[in-house]
Amino acid sequence: MPNSFSVSGSRQEGISVLALDGFLDAHTAPAFEEAIEKEVSAGHNRIVVDCARLAYISSAGLGVFMTFIEEVREAGGDIKICAVIPKVGQVFEILGFNSLFEIVGDIPQAVARFAHSRAEGG
Amino acid sequence: MVANFERTFILHVPSSTENLALIRGFVSNIGKQAGLDENQVCMIEIAVDEACANVIEHAYGSDRTKEVVVRAKLSDDTIEIQVEDTGKGFDPASVEQKEVTRLIQERKSGGLGMRMMKLVMDEVQYNMKPGERNELRMVKKLKRP
Fold first, then answer.
1. Per the CB < 8 Å rule, is B105 touching A70?
2. At A83, which CATH number?
3. Which residues between 90 and 129 in chain B have a beta carbon less than 8 angstroms from any beta carbon of chain A?
4. pLDDT of B69-91, one tens digit each?
Protein backbone atom coordinates (compact mmCIF):
# COMPACT_ATOMS: atom_id res chain seq x y z
CA MET A 1 0.00 0.00 0.00
CA PRO A 2 1.48 3.36 -0.99
CA ASN A 3 1.79 5.21 2.30
CA SER A 4 5.53 5.23 2.75
CA PHE A 5 7.29 8.52 3.21
CA SER A 6 10.78 9.60 4.13
CA VAL A 7 12.82 12.79 4.30
CA SER A 8 16.57 12.89 3.88
CA GLY A 9 18.60 15.98 4.55
CA SER A 10 21.93 17.27 3.26
CA ARG A 11 23.82 20.56 3.09
CA GLN A 12 24.98 22.08 -0.18
CA GLU A 13 26.82 25.41 -0.33
CA GLY A 14 25.38 26.43 3.02
CA ILE A 15 21.86 25.50 2.00
CA SER A 16 19.78 22.72 3.54
CA VAL A 17 18.35 20.31 0.99
CA LEU A 18 15.44 18.15 2.16
CA ALA A 19 14.59 15.37 -0.28
CA LEU A 20 11.05 14.02 0.07
CA ASP A 21 10.28 10.47 -1.00
CA GLY A 22 6.83 8.89 -1.17
CA PHE A 23 3.40 10.04 -0.09
CA LEU A 24 2.87 13.19 1.95
CA ASP A 25 -0.53 13.24 3.65
CA ALA A 26 -2.03 13.83 7.10
CA HIS A 27 -0.32 10.68 8.35
CA THR A 28 3.17 11.46 7.10
CA ALA A 29 3.19 15.29 7.33
CA PRO A 30 4.51 15.26 10.94
CA ALA A 31 7.78 13.66 9.69
CA PHE A 32 8.24 16.48 7.18
CA GLU A 33 7.34 19.09 9.80
CA GLU A 34 9.93 17.63 12.16
CA ALA A 35 12.60 17.76 9.46
CA ILE A 36 11.96 21.43 8.64
CA GLU A 37 11.67 22.31 12.32
CA LYS A 38 15.10 20.77 12.89
CA GLU A 39 16.65 22.93 10.16
CA VAL A 40 14.96 26.14 11.33
CA SER A 41 15.93 25.47 14.96
CA ALA A 42 19.55 25.06 13.84
CA GLY A 43 19.36 28.49 12.20
CA HIS A 44 19.31 27.01 8.71
CA ASN A 45 16.82 29.30 7.03
CA ARG A 46 17.79 28.66 3.43
CA ILE A 47 16.00 25.46 2.55
CA VAL A 48 15.46 23.60 -0.72
CA VAL A 49 12.73 20.95 -0.76
CA ASP A 50 13.50 18.40 -3.46
CA CYS A 51 10.23 16.81 -4.64
CA ALA A 52 11.69 14.58 -7.38
CA ARG A 53 10.61 11.44 -5.54
CA LEU A 54 7.47 12.87 -3.98
CA ALA A 55 4.57 10.91 -5.49
CA TYR A 56 1.64 12.59 -3.72
CA ILE A 57 0.80 15.60 -1.59
CA SER A 58 -2.39 16.62 0.21
CA SER A 59 -3.21 19.84 2.03
CA ALA A 60 -1.60 18.44 5.19
CA GLY A 61 1.74 18.46 3.35
CA LEU A 62 1.14 21.92 1.92
CA GLY A 63 0.36 23.07 5.45
CA VAL A 64 3.92 22.30 6.53
CA PHE A 65 5.30 24.74 3.93
CA MET A 66 2.77 27.33 5.12
CA THR A 67 3.72 26.97 8.77
CA PHE A 68 7.38 27.79 8.24
CA ILE A 69 7.60 30.10 5.24
CA GLU A 70 7.02 33.38 7.11
CA GLU A 71 9.51 32.48 9.82
CA VAL A 72 12.33 31.63 7.41
CA ARG A 73 11.66 34.66 5.21
CA GLU A 74 11.69 36.96 8.23
CA ALA A 75 15.10 35.46 9.09
CA GLY A 76 16.33 36.34 5.58
CA GLY A 77 15.93 32.87 4.15
CA ASP A 78 13.39 31.07 2.02
CA ILE A 79 11.96 27.64 1.21
CA LYS A 80 12.41 26.87 -2.47
CA ILE A 81 10.71 23.89 -4.03
CA CYS A 82 12.18 21.90 -6.92
CA ALA A 83 11.69 18.93 -9.26
CA VAL A 84 7.94 18.61 -8.78
CA ILE A 85 6.19 15.86 -10.78
CA PRO A 86 3.00 16.95 -12.62
CA LYS A 87 0.62 15.17 -10.21
CA VAL A 88 2.08 17.07 -7.26
CA GLY A 89 2.54 20.26 -9.29
CA GLN A 90 -1.16 20.51 -10.04
CA VAL A 91 -1.97 20.41 -6.33
CA PHE A 92 0.43 23.32 -5.73
CA GLU A 93 -1.21 25.13 -8.63
CA ILE A 94 -4.82 24.55 -7.52
CA LEU A 95 -4.15 26.29 -4.21
CA GLY A 96 -2.06 29.07 -5.72
CA PHE A 97 1.28 27.97 -4.26
CA ASN A 98 2.99 28.81 -7.54
CA SER A 99 2.69 32.51 -6.82
CA LEU A 100 3.66 32.18 -3.16
CA PHE A 101 6.68 29.89 -3.43
CA GLU A 102 9.54 29.74 -5.87
CA ILE A 103 9.27 26.42 -7.69
CA VAL A 104 12.16 25.51 -10.00
CA GLY A 105 13.34 22.55 -12.06
CA ASP A 106 16.09 20.96 -9.99
CA ILE A 107 18.37 21.31 -6.96
CA PRO A 108 21.18 23.24 -8.73
CA GLN A 109 18.64 25.78 -9.98
CA ALA A 110 17.15 26.16 -6.49
CA VAL A 111 20.62 26.61 -4.96
CA ALA A 112 21.47 29.14 -7.67
CA ARG A 113 18.31 31.11 -6.88
CA PHE A 114 19.58 31.59 -3.33
CA ALA A 115 22.88 32.90 -4.69
CA HIS A 116 20.88 35.19 -6.98
CA SER A 117 18.79 36.48 -4.07
CA ARG A 118 21.97 37.24 -2.12
CA ALA A 119 23.43 39.12 -5.09
CA GLU A 120 20.27 41.23 -5.14
CA GLY A 121 20.68 41.82 -1.43
CA GLY A 122 17.71 39.57 -0.58
CA MET B 1 -30.86 3.26 -25.86
CA VAL B 2 -28.05 2.10 -23.60
CA ALA B 3 -28.97 1.49 -19.97
CA ASN B 4 -27.23 3.70 -17.40
CA PHE B 5 -25.72 1.23 -14.96
CA GLU B 6 -24.90 2.46 -11.49
CA ARG B 7 -22.30 0.64 -9.48
CA THR B 8 -21.67 1.27 -5.79
CA PHE B 9 -18.51 0.35 -3.88
CA ILE B 10 -18.28 0.64 -0.11
CA LEU B 11 -15.23 0.77 2.14
CA HIS B 12 -15.34 0.66 5.96
CA VAL B 13 -12.06 1.59 7.62
CA PRO B 14 -10.90 2.31 11.16
CA SER B 15 -10.49 6.02 11.80
CA SER B 16 -6.72 6.41 11.54
CA THR B 17 -4.63 8.55 9.22
CA GLU B 18 -2.51 5.50 8.38
CA ASN B 19 -5.55 4.27 6.41
CA LEU B 20 -5.60 7.33 4.14
CA ALA B 21 -3.38 5.47 1.67
CA LEU B 22 -5.82 2.57 1.61
CA ILE B 23 -8.74 4.96 1.06
CA ARG B 24 -6.90 6.69 -1.80
CA GLY B 25 -6.14 3.30 -3.33
CA PHE B 26 -9.84 2.36 -3.10
CA VAL B 27 -11.13 5.40 -5.01
CA SER B 28 -8.18 5.44 -7.39
CA ASN B 29 -8.83 1.84 -8.42
CA ILE B 30 -12.52 2.53 -8.98
CA GLY B 31 -11.68 5.58 -11.08
CA LYS B 32 -9.16 3.66 -13.17
CA GLN B 33 -11.57 0.77 -13.62
CA ALA B 34 -14.18 3.27 -14.84
CA GLY B 35 -11.72 4.44 -17.48
CA LEU B 36 -11.03 7.90 -16.08
CA ASP B 37 -7.89 9.72 -17.07
CA GLU B 38 -5.01 10.14 -14.63
CA ASN B 39 -5.87 13.76 -13.87
CA GLN B 40 -9.45 12.97 -12.90
CA VAL B 41 -8.36 10.03 -10.77
CA CYS B 42 -5.90 12.30 -9.01
CA MET B 43 -8.56 14.94 -8.28
CA ILE B 44 -10.97 12.37 -6.83
CA GLU B 45 -8.18 10.81 -4.80
CA ILE B 46 -7.21 14.11 -3.19
CA ALA B 47 -10.81 15.17 -2.48
CA VAL B 48 -11.49 11.89 -0.67
CA ASP B 49 -8.18 12.09 1.20
CA GLU B 50 -9.05 15.61 2.43
CA ALA B 51 -12.57 14.57 3.43
CA CYS B 52 -11.41 11.51 5.36
CA ALA B 53 -8.47 13.32 7.01
CA ASN B 54 -10.98 15.90 8.32
CA VAL B 55 -13.24 13.15 9.66
CA ILE B 56 -10.37 11.28 11.34
CA GLU B 57 -8.81 14.38 12.92
CA HIS B 58 -11.81 16.62 13.63
CA ALA B 59 -15.03 14.56 13.74
CA TYR B 60 -13.42 11.68 15.65
CA GLY B 61 -10.47 13.49 17.29
CA SER B 62 -8.15 10.69 16.08
CA ASP B 63 -10.13 8.03 17.99
CA ARG B 64 -8.98 4.86 16.21
CA THR B 65 -11.91 2.83 17.52
CA LYS B 66 -14.31 4.73 15.23
CA GLU B 67 -15.10 3.93 11.64
CA VAL B 68 -15.09 5.94 8.43
CA VAL B 69 -17.34 4.80 5.60
CA VAL B 70 -16.56 5.73 2.00
CA ARG B 71 -19.14 5.01 -0.70
CA ALA B 72 -18.27 5.48 -4.34
CA LYS B 73 -21.18 5.45 -6.75
CA LEU B 74 -20.29 5.28 -10.38
CA SER B 75 -22.70 6.10 -13.17
CA ASP B 76 -22.07 6.76 -16.85
CA ASP B 77 -21.43 10.45 -16.38
CA THR B 78 -20.58 11.02 -12.71
CA ILE B 79 -18.70 9.60 -9.78
CA GLU B 80 -20.34 10.36 -6.47
CA ILE B 81 -18.41 9.92 -3.25
CA GLN B 82 -20.00 9.87 0.18
CA VAL B 83 -17.91 10.01 3.32
CA GLU B 84 -19.83 9.10 6.46
CA ASP B 85 -19.00 9.32 10.14
CA THR B 86 -20.78 9.32 13.48
CA GLY B 87 -18.51 11.92 15.06
CA LYS B 88 -19.16 15.36 16.42
CA GLY B 89 -19.83 17.11 13.11
CA PHE B 90 -19.64 20.84 12.50
CA ASP B 91 -21.48 23.67 10.82
CA PRO B 92 -19.93 23.98 7.35
CA ALA B 93 -21.29 27.52 7.00
CA SER B 94 -19.28 28.62 10.03
CA VAL B 95 -15.96 27.55 8.51
CA GLU B 96 -14.22 30.67 7.30
CA GLN B 97 -12.54 30.12 3.94
CA LYS B 98 -9.37 32.13 4.44
CA GLU B 99 -7.05 32.99 1.59
CA VAL B 100 -3.79 31.03 1.53
CA THR B 101 -1.81 34.28 1.94
CA ARG B 102 -3.71 35.00 5.16
CA LEU B 103 -3.16 31.49 6.51
CA ILE B 104 0.55 31.92 5.82
CA GLN B 105 0.63 35.25 7.66
CA GLU B 106 -1.09 33.58 10.59
CA ARG B 107 1.32 30.60 10.34
CA LYS B 108 -1.62 28.24 10.12
CA SER B 109 -1.10 24.83 8.61
CA GLY B 110 -4.76 23.83 8.38
CA GLY B 111 -7.84 25.17 6.68
CA LEU B 112 -7.07 24.05 3.16
CA GLY B 113 -8.88 20.72 3.01
CA MET B 114 -12.40 21.99 2.42
CA ARG B 115 -11.14 24.54 -0.09
CA MET B 116 -9.33 21.78 -1.96
CA MET B 117 -12.46 19.59 -2.11
CA LYS B 118 -14.54 22.48 -3.45
CA LEU B 119 -11.92 23.32 -6.06
CA VAL B 120 -11.51 19.82 -7.46
CA MET B 121 -15.08 18.46 -7.27
CA ASP B 122 -18.19 19.76 -9.04
CA GLU B 123 -20.51 19.47 -6.02
CA VAL B 124 -19.74 19.34 -2.29
CA GLN B 125 -22.60 19.03 0.20
CA TYR B 126 -22.68 18.34 3.91
CA ASN B 127 -25.55 16.76 5.79
CA MET B 128 -24.81 16.83 9.51
CA LYS B 129 -26.53 14.95 12.31
CA PRO B 130 -23.79 15.14 14.96
CA GLY B 131 -23.32 11.95 16.95
CA GLU B 132 -25.69 10.08 14.63
CA ARG B 133 -24.56 10.31 11.04
CA ASN B 134 -22.63 13.05 9.28
CA GLU B 135 -22.38 12.77 5.55
CA LEU B 136 -20.28 14.57 2.99
CA ARG B 137 -21.40 14.06 -0.59
CA MET B 138 -19.12 15.03 -3.46
CA VAL B 139 -19.80 14.67 -7.16
CA LYS B 140 -17.41 14.82 -10.09
CA LYS B 141 -18.73 14.95 -13.63
CA LEU B 142 -16.79 12.55 -15.76
CA LYS B 143 -14.91 13.32 -18.92
CA ARG B 144 -13.96 10.05 -20.47
CA PRO B 145 -10.80 9.91 -22.55
1. yes
2. 3.30.750.24
3. 100-101, 103-105, 107-110, 112-113, 115-116, 119-120
4. 999 999 989 999 999 999 988 88
pLDDT beyond 50 at B34: yes
How many distinct structural domains can be found in chain A?
Answer: 1
ipTM entry: 0.90
Which CATH number, 3.40.630.30, 3.30.565.10, 3.40.50.300, 3.90.226.10, labels domain B7-141?
A: 3.30.565.10
- Which tens digits make up the pLDDT trace of B2-33? 556 679 999 999 999 999 999 999 999 999 98
- Specify burial of residue A39 (Cβ count, 10 A radius: 0-12, 13-18, 19+): buried
CB contact under 8 A, A95 and B115: yes
Q: What is the DSSP string of B51-107?
A: HHHHIIIIISTT-TTSEEEEEEEE-SSEEEEEEEE-S----GGGS----HHHHHHTT
Sign of the C-alpha dihedral computed for residues B6, B10, B16 and B18 taken in this order:
negative
